[in-house]
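User: Run a structure prediction on this.
Assistant: Running it now.
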Amino acid sequence: MMRKAKWKRVVAAGAILMSLGMVFPSADIQAEEVDFGSEIVEIVEEDSITPCADQIVIYYRVHNGRRQKRRWNKTQGKWVDKNWIDLGPAY
Protein backbone atom coordinates (compact mmCIF):
# COMPACT_ATOMS: atom_id res chain seq x y z
CA MET A 1 0.00 0.00 0.00
CA MET A 2 2.88 2.37 0.72
CA ARG A 3 4.27 1.97 -2.77
CA LYS A 4 0.97 2.92 -4.39
CA ALA A 5 0.72 6.05 -2.25
CA LYS A 6 4.27 7.06 -3.09
CA TRP A 7 3.63 6.44 -6.80
CA LYS A 8 0.52 8.64 -6.67
CA ARG A 9 2.52 11.45 -5.04
CA VAL A 10 5.20 11.25 -7.73
CA VAL A 11 2.60 11.36 -10.52
CA ALA A 12 0.80 14.27 -8.86
CA ALA A 13 4.04 16.22 -8.42
CA GLY A 14 4.94 15.62 -12.09
CA ALA A 15 1.50 16.81 -13.22
CA ILE A 16 1.84 19.97 -11.13
CA LEU A 17 5.27 20.74 -12.55
CA MET A 18 4.02 20.22 -16.10
CA SER A 19 1.05 22.51 -15.52
CA LEU A 20 3.36 25.21 -14.13
CA GLY A 21 5.19 25.13 -17.44
CA MET A 22 1.93 25.94 -19.21
CA VAL A 23 0.97 28.73 -16.81
CA PHE A 24 4.40 30.33 -16.69
CA PRO A 25 6.00 29.68 -20.09
CA SER A 26 9.71 30.31 -20.32
CA ALA A 27 10.95 33.27 -22.32
CA ASP A 28 11.83 32.65 -25.94
CA ILE A 29 15.57 32.47 -26.41
CA GLN A 30 16.86 33.44 -29.81
CA ALA A 31 20.36 33.62 -31.17
CA GLU A 32 21.67 37.01 -32.15
CA GLU A 33 23.98 37.45 -35.11
CA VAL A 34 27.21 39.17 -34.10
CA ASP A 35 29.74 40.76 -36.43
CA PHE A 36 33.26 40.13 -35.11
CA GLY A 37 34.98 42.01 -37.88
CA SER A 38 37.22 40.76 -40.64
CA GLU A 39 40.51 40.89 -38.73
CA ILE A 40 39.97 37.57 -36.96
CA VAL A 41 38.64 35.63 -39.94
CA GLU A 42 41.12 33.16 -41.35
CA ILE A 43 40.56 31.79 -44.82
CA VAL A 44 42.00 28.31 -45.28
CA GLU A 45 42.00 26.43 -48.53
CA GLU A 46 40.20 23.09 -48.41
CA ASP A 47 43.27 21.14 -49.53
CA SER A 48 45.64 22.49 -46.86
CA ILE A 49 46.05 20.64 -43.57
CA THR A 50 47.79 22.29 -40.66
CA PRO A 51 48.94 19.89 -37.92
CA CYS A 52 48.28 21.09 -34.38
CA ALA A 53 50.17 18.38 -32.50
CA ASP A 54 53.92 18.01 -32.26
CA GLN A 55 55.49 15.77 -34.88
CA ILE A 56 57.50 13.02 -33.21
CA VAL A 57 60.10 10.99 -35.14
CA ILE A 58 61.61 7.79 -33.72
CA TYR A 59 65.29 7.16 -34.41
CA TYR A 60 66.87 3.71 -34.02
CA ARG A 61 70.53 2.76 -33.63
CA VAL A 62 72.74 -0.16 -32.68
CA HIS A 63 75.17 0.78 -29.88
CA ASN A 64 77.50 -1.72 -28.19
CA GLY A 65 75.54 -4.64 -29.68
CA ARG A 66 72.18 -3.34 -28.36
CA ARG A 67 69.27 -1.97 -30.39
CA GLN A 68 68.14 1.40 -29.06
CA LYS A 69 65.52 4.03 -29.88
CA ARG A 70 65.02 7.70 -29.07
CA ARG A 71 62.18 10.09 -29.91
CA TRP A 72 62.87 13.45 -31.58
CA ASN A 73 60.32 16.29 -31.46
CA LYS A 74 60.51 17.66 -34.99
CA THR A 75 58.26 20.62 -34.16
CA GLN A 76 60.29 21.90 -31.19
CA GLY A 77 63.68 20.64 -32.41
CA LYS A 78 64.65 18.71 -29.30
CA TRP A 79 64.79 15.18 -27.92
CA VAL A 80 61.67 13.90 -26.16
CA ASP A 81 63.59 11.17 -24.31
CA LYS A 82 66.52 12.15 -22.13
CA ASN A 83 68.48 8.98 -22.96
CA TRP A 84 68.46 6.22 -25.56
CA ILE A 85 66.05 3.36 -24.69
CA ASP A 86 67.35 -0.23 -24.95
CA LEU A 87 65.22 -2.56 -27.08
CA GLY A 88 67.34 -5.68 -26.69
CA PRO A 89 70.29 -7.33 -28.43
CA ALA A 90 70.92 -6.55 -32.10
CA TYR A 91 70.36 -9.54 -34.40
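Strands lie at 56-63, 66-73, 78-79, 85-89.
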